[in-house]
Amino acid sequence: MSKSPFPGMDPYLEEAWHDVHNSLCTYSRDDIQSQLSGGLIARVDERLVVEQSSGIGRSIHGDVRIVHRNRPTSPPAIAPSSTAVALAEPITLELSDEMATEGFIEIIDTRTGGKVITVIEFVSMTNKLPGPGQDQYRRKRLELETGGVSLVEINLLRSGPFIETFPQAMLHPENRTPYYVIVHRGWAKQTYQYYPMALAERLSAIAIPLRETDADVVLDIQSLIDRVYRNGAYDIEIDYASNPNPPLEGRAAEWADALLKEAGAR
Questions:
Q1: What is the rounded CA–CA span in Å between residue 7 and residue 203?
Q2: Cα→Cα distances 116→37, 54, 120, 147, Å
Q3: How far apart are CA 57 and CA 130, in angstroms?
Q4: In this predicted model, what pLDDT tens digit does every residue of 172-196 receive, in sequence order?
Q5: CA 107 to CA 33: how far, in whole Å?
Q6: Angle of the 17-33 helix axis to the 221-231 helix axis, nearest 10
Q7: Lowest mean pLDDT among 60-69, 74-83, 208-217
Q8: Where residue 75 falls among pLDDT bands split at 50, 70, 90?
Q9: Bridge partner list, 209
Q10: What's the whole-number average pLDDT of the chain?
Q11: Residue 183, SS3?
Q12: CA angle (207, 213, 214) in 5-degree steps
């Protein structure tokens, strides 16, 4: 099965997000570069982030070791006291922090000394959850807005809260879809374009802004996901008999179950 049984974003791909994210950046760079002219080039860049293995709070990409220390054969010495009690032996947790990299795409104007005109982000959990990674991302977003740089934020993760580029309450409930794209054009200070993307539908092709005087280029997100799935051989790795992580619930779970059975994947 070289193509995902899902018509849009495959929810099972979230479990391999680091690999998916890297591939999306590379394929997006390639597709955008083929449409650029006038001294514009697309490049994949990366920043260092800290992730948390628990997926809660700040994100630490590293190892957590649980070290079980056996109780001593004899209790520790305790100063004589009528209220003396035996000390409990704790379990020691050792957290190994490691820096990880997170990619994004920049469109650069080579005719103005390499000025960045557009940044494209595939949102990760480090951007969505409170902690140093989110703080770093928000600072960058503010710097881009202040500098008149356009920002495209592509969310293909059901996990985590809305990224709050603007208040989610501004959206009608029917447009609060699990997947979405937010586009802020650098010259339109208080204006945002929002692309809702439902679980059961094909992912959208979106307009990527360049310089204010340029025509937009197109990024077909569904074609990117199809390429990621095919080239990554995810049909071999994914167990469609189980529920994805995070799990689908209610009507979404019923829809997925019927779809996977029809495709012979469950």
A1: 8
A2: 15, 35, 11, 9
A3: 5
A4: 999 999 999 999 999 998 899 999 9
A5: 9
A6: 120
A7: 60-69
A8: low
A9: none
A10: 88
A11: strand
A12: 40
Distances (CA, A) of 98 to 59, 74, 89, 183, 253: 10, 38, 29, 32, 36
Residue 78 has pLDDT above 70, yes or no: no
Determine contact, residues 23/34, Cβ cutoff 8 Å. no
| Phi-psi label, residue 241: left if phi above 0, alpha if psi -120 to 50, beta otherwise | alpha
Q: Are 102 and 96 in contact (CB under 8 A)?
A: no
Give CA–CA dist 181/20, Å, rounded.
Answer: 17
| Rounded Cα distance, 109 and 187, in Å | 16
User: 3-state DSSP call for residue 107?
Assistant: strand
Is 60 or 72 the better-scoring residue by pLDDT?
Answer: 72
**Nearest CA among 60, 221, 240 for reference residue 156:** 221
